[in-house]
Write a structure and sequence with these properties.
By secondary structure, the protein is α+β, with helices and mostly antiparallel strands. The chain has 4 helices and 3 strands. Helices cover about 50% and strands about 30% of the residues. A 3-stranded antiparallel β-sheet has the order 1-2-3. The longest helix is centred in the first third of the chain and has 40 residues. The radius of gyration is 24 Å and the shape is elongated. The model has no long low-confidence stretch (mean pLDDT about 90). InterPro entries: DUF4845 (IPR032314).
Length: about 130
């Protein structure tokens, strides 16, 4: 009886172990390559929200909004995104603007495989 249950409890084989390590390596590689793109996006979203919450600090209408975003992006060392290419300003009403972010980020994963992620976000800015 003891030998019979012992043979059923052999554990994972070499092939199973290699498969698990390979899958773990694959997903960790994707996480390490794509993580910075998402961190940059979340930082830009925070910047946009801060600009919308503090409109009294902005002078100059739409250009002032973009300048405020650009300065905060420089402080946060986000140099791979361009304010004039990735942001748009849309006038909604008198002194009310939509600050629109829209861009895609391409990251090389391995061999000839790249990942493309698209980011869109919008916030309303009410100037005094």
């Amino acid at each position: 009886m003891y030998r019979r249950s012992q043979s059923r409890q052999r554990g994972i084989g070499m092939l199973g172990f290699i498969l698990i390590v390979g899958l773990a390596t694959f997903f960790i590689t994707i996480l390490l390559k794509m993580g910075p793109a998402y961190l940059n996006y979340w930082t830009i979203r925070t910047i946009m929200t801060e600009v919308a919450k503090q409109p009294q600090m902005i002078e100059g209408g739409p250009r002032g909004i973009l300048n405020a975003v650009s300065k905060r992006m420089d402080v946060n060392n986000l140099r791979d995104r361009s304010v004039k290419d990735d942001f748009a300003i849309e006038k909604v009403d008198n002194n009310v603007y939509n600050l629109i972010l829209s861009y895609e980020d391409r990251r090389h994963l391995f061999f000839n495989v790249d990942a493309v992620v698209m980011f869109d976000y919008q916030v309303e800015v009410r100037l005094p």
